[in-house]
From TrEMBL:
An example Gene Ontology molecular-function term: siderophore uptake transmembrane transporter activity
Domain TonB-dependent receptor-like beta-barrel: from-to ranges: 306-779
Protein name listed in UniProt: TonB-dependent receptor-like beta-barrel domain-containing protein
Subcellular location: Cell outer membrane
Gene3D superfamilies: Carboxypeptidase-like, regulatory domain (2.60.40.1120), TonB-dependent receptor, beta-barrel domain (2.40.170.20)
Keyword terms of this UniProt record: Cell outer membrane, Membrane, Receptor, Signal, TonB box, Transmembrane, Transmembrane beta strand, Transport
Residues spanning the signal sequence: none
Organism in which the protein naturally occurs: candidate division WOR_3 bacterium SM23_42
SUPFAM superfamilies xref list: Carboxypeptidase regulatory domain-like, Porins
Domain of life: Bacteria
GO terms (BP aspect): siderophore transmembrane transport
Coiled coil: none
Membrane topology: Multi-pass membrane protein
Length: 868
């Protein structure tokens, strides 16, 4: 068995595979013990007696492979492209030669399809990442056919936002507390993004809809520096939302065996979710620091160390708080990741890998202290003891007061006094260990087996400020504070069967999680998965897969307010949402059929048909209890999703691109876990509430969706990139008592469309390069509706006569604290009923959030990239 020598750079086993057979050109018989060498990498292998060879764990990239044997002419195969988690298959013939002659060189042609892709796989490469008009890491898949975007959330094949696993070099960056990614990686340090929307391998757990693997660059063997900047601030006012982004990276080759990469990313904007114009209290400041070091002391051992720190902080805007935004909510997310990966290569048919990692996240939201902050300075938040309950007051431009006579819920009023009523601080510390082995046990069978373990420390402090209407007595506060140590265990095994034109992946995964709460038994589940593909013709591959995909419940759904049960009697009208430690894992049974191939050398086509049954989804239900009722998370929801994806890819010397179309249906009983809790008016009355789950089109159900993406190669190293999105509107519920008297999501918003473009021009200056770019978002300036809008209080509920009845007992004169000069139109020192009425109408009209009901306008940015 041949020895396998390597100093190539890999991180956390992000690799592909090269295999094949070497034959005699004349007789067609296998050539045993032929030497296989991957040039410039010190990787070597030898063919077995049957002429086959296998090279596991190859870094993605382009290679030249040399084949030689005594008595044969050497053959060099160039441009062998290795992709992550894919196999390159080479069939080589050598010509007998009694004397040594010059090697023959051939160019490898990468096939359009690979038979080992048993599920839908989309790869966004570095050249494409550089020009994507996308700012944030989690949105890099936004132009892929499986993705529907609802406001700031991305939904993969009809699943919830929290059903997607985000990873950096095969290490999860998901906070198990909340299900959100905690790191924002700079695009400049990414080599490619692998997006798996269905039929993914058994090694991926905690994912029911998709996997997004962010693959970072490998440290280079030469000193390399790149700096990049992009800004809106030099643009005219109408195109400027204050966005600016700076990135930089440097590759440091200390020695041939020790190399490194350091990167930074800084981003600031005055409005992080633009609408018609810049809105107040929407500032965002991000930074990310990233480092990666590779130490390869020998050909068989390799150690990779990775570290990342990311900080995201931003303000939120809500029209209800329009006149009191300095006391509204702000958020801070501080995350960091450390990972150590050790791999061992006994020989060319075995590969062992172990990864140790630590993921830490701190998430805070509340009312921040106002004032300027430095570049790396975190928000500071008001102490929860000083926060006041939000309420109405005459502190508004109209001087309007509370409409006493009306039967209008308190939370429907514009809030002009007090603070955002909640302060929350969560921290998650996840210590992980992951290991696996890949063994080529037979020329037709490669077995992969591994384990995962995670030990977590989850902390939470949450305080809901007092209010006499909700909590009986001013001295009471609703506080939720806990520390728990849950654990997760996983084992998996998979057989990759590669037999002539057939390829299959058959695997089994075992997951178990323990909540860390006494008396709660650990939950376990077994997930079988199977994917099969075979070549229908030389250019078309058919694939199908079926599998069970699961994920443990978010730990916030287990622990929230559970510590304070039974609820205290001073909770007057407020029902908190309480966690349920006995929640089971959520499950998705997925089926997929696909056909992919090349129509000709310049045109390829793909069609995927998928069907998903989702069960044990987490929802919320009313729980009658003594002394106080509450609402609790339960495994009570389900969903059914089906659809078709069609992709056309084209390539030409002048232009290249792809067009995708998705037709899908997503129905279920709940669009997100807290939906039922949000539907009902828990503040007012809950004694007679009953809820019957009914299936409806989910909020993110988008029937038709088209993405167009292309690049036009112009003269003088100039390129024009275009990105088009066209989709049907999302469903919504017409006005009424939602969930009680009106069927949900029976109407749809209007058709959506947007075209973005990037024009880039490159210059070469010796060994350095410079690239200028102009990015235009929403080139056509079309703003489409993304949500319904209207005033917080319907005009039909405002009766002019009520103000007269109220006026006789409450005359607002200058001496009264409720007197407001803006309401006193004639400046006579008294606010009359007519003036009170008109002031209130003016205030209500300001509560119509029409600005945020439509998508972003046209924006323009200039960018500059320099490489040295």
């Amino acid at each position: 068995m041949a020895q396998f020598y390597i100093v190539a750079m890999l991180c956390t086993a992000v690799s592909g595979k090269i295999q094949g057979i070497v034959k005699d050109e004349d007789s067609g018989k296998p050539i045993p013990y032929a030497h296989v060498s991957i040039l410039n990498t010190q990787i070597g292998a030898a063919t077995a007696k049957d002429g086959t060879f296998f090279v596991l764990s190859m870094a993605p990239g382009s290679y030249s492979v040399e084949f030689s044997h005594l008595g044969y002419q050497t053959k060099l195969v160039k441009d062998v492209i290795v992709e992550i988690n894919q196999t390159v298959r080479l069939e080589i013939t050598l010509k007998q030669s009694p004397i040594e002659i010059a090697p023959v060189t051939v160019i490898s042609k990468t096939p359009f399809v690979s038979k080992d892709m048993t599920g839908a796989t989309y790869i966004i490469r570095k050249a494409e990442l550089a020009v994507l008009p996308i700012d944030y890491t989690v949105e890099l898949i936004a132009f892929q056919p499986s993705v529907a975007r609802l406001d700031t959330g991305l939904h993969v094949r009809g699943g919830r936002v929290t059903e997607v696993l985000y990873m950096v070099d095969n290490v999860s960056i998901i906070d198990p507390h909340t299900g959100d990614p905690v790191l924002s990686m700079p695009k400049g340090v990414l080599n490619e993004v692998i997006f798996l929307s269905g039929g993914y391998d058994i090694e991926y757990g905690r994912a029911m809809s998709g996997v997004v693997n962010l693959i970072t660059e490998h440290p280079l063997e030469r000193l390399y520096t790149r700096v990049y900047g992009k800004s809106e601030r030099i643009m005219p006012y109408d195109y400027n939302f204050g966005y600016v982004n700076y990135q930089g990276s440097v590759h440091v080759p200390v020695s041939r065996k020790f190399k490194g990469l350091i990167s930074f990313d800084l981003m600031q904007t005055n409005d992080w979710n633009p609408r018609l114009h810049v809105l107040p209290h929407k500032q965002r400041d991000d930074y990310t620091l990233y480092g990666k070091w590779l130490f390869a002391p020998s050909g068989k051992w390799r150690l990779t160390l990775t570290g990342a720190k990311s900080r995201v902080q931003f303000d939120r805007y809500d029209t209800q708080w329009k006149f009191n935004l300095n006391h509204y909510r702000s958020d801070l997310i501080d995350g960091n990741l450390q990972a150590a990966n050790l791999s061992f290569l006994p020989d060319s048919r075995k590969f062992l890998n172990v990864t140790l990692s630590r993921l830490h996240a701190t998430k805070i939201y509340g009312v921040r202290e106002w004032g300027p902050y430095g570049l790396f300075e975190n928000f500071t938040f008001k102490d929860s003891s000083s926060i006041k309950w939000p309420t109405y007051s005459v502190r508004n431009p109209y001087g309007a007061d509370f409409y006493v006579e009306a039967d209008i819920p308190l939370y429907d009023y514009p809030l002009t006094d007090g603070d955002y009523p909640e302060y929350r601080r969560r921290s998650s510390n996840v210590l992980g260990a992951k290991g696996y082995a890949r063994i080529q046990v037979h020329k037709y069978h490669e077995v992969k087996a591994g384990f995962e373990y995670a030990f977590m420390e989850l902390k939470n402090f949450n305080q809901f400020v007092p209010n006499e209407y909700l909590l009986f007595g001013k001295e009471y506060k609703l506080t939720d504070e806990y520390t728990f140590h849950p654990r997760e265990y996983s084992m998996f095994v998979q057989d990759n069967i590669d037999y002539k034109g057939l390829y299959a992946r058959v695997g089994l995964r075992y997951d178990r999680f323990a909540t860390g709460i006494d008396g709660v038994e650990p939950k376990a589940i077994i997930s079988p998965r199977c994917g099969v593909s075979f070549m229908v013709t030389e250019k078309f591959v058919f694939r199908t897969n079926i599998g069970l995909y699961t994920q443990p419940p978010l730990y916030d759904h287990l622990y929230s307010y559970h510590n304070i049960l039974p609820l205290p009697s001073h909770l007057e009208r407020y029902l908190p949402l309480v966690g349920n430690p006995k929640l089971n894992p959520e499950k998705t049974m997925s089926y997929e059929l696909g056909l992919q191939g090349a129509i000709n050398e310049k045109l390829g086509a793909t069609i995927n048909i998928f069907y998903k049954d989702v069960s044990d989804l987490i929802g919320t239900r009313f729980i009658p209890a003594a002394p106080r009722d509450y609402v609790r998370y339960e495994n009570v929801e389900y969903a059914n999703i089906r659809g078709v994806e069609m992709i056309i890819e084209f390539a030409h010397s002048l232009f290249a691109g792809k067009v995708s179309y998705t037709l899908s249906w997503a129905r279920g009983t709940s669009s997100y876990a807290e939906e039922v809790y949000d539907i009902f008016d828990w503040y007012e009355s809950h004694d007679t509430i009953t809820y019957n789950a009914e299936e409806y089109y989910l909020n993110f159900d988008q029937r038709h969706r088209i993405f167009v993406q292309g690049v036009l190669n112009l003269p003088m190293q100039t390129k024009f990139h275009a990105f088009g999105y066209f989709g049907s509107g999302f469903p919504y519920t017409p006005p009424g008592e939602e969930g009680i008297t009106e069927e949900r999501n029976v109407l749809r918003l209007k058709f959506q469309k947007q075209v973005d473009c990037v024009l880039s021009k490159s210059f070469r200056i010796g060994k350095s390069s410079l690239t200028l770019s102009l990015e235009i978002l929403n080139l056509l300036g079309v703003r489409y509706q993304i949500r319904k809008h209207g005033p917080l209080i319907h005009y039909a509920n405002i009766d002019y006569q009520d103000f007269y009845r109220y006026y006789f007992n409450h005359i607002y004169s200058v001496a009264d604290k409720y007197y407001a000069p803006p309401a006193d139109k004639n400046h006579d020192g008294i606010v009359t009923p007519r003036e009170q009425y008109e002031a209130f109408l003016g205030l209500v009209s300001e509560s119509d959030d029409w600005v945020n009901a439509y998508s972003a306008p046209r924006r323009a940015r200039l960018g500059l990239s320099i490489t040295l």
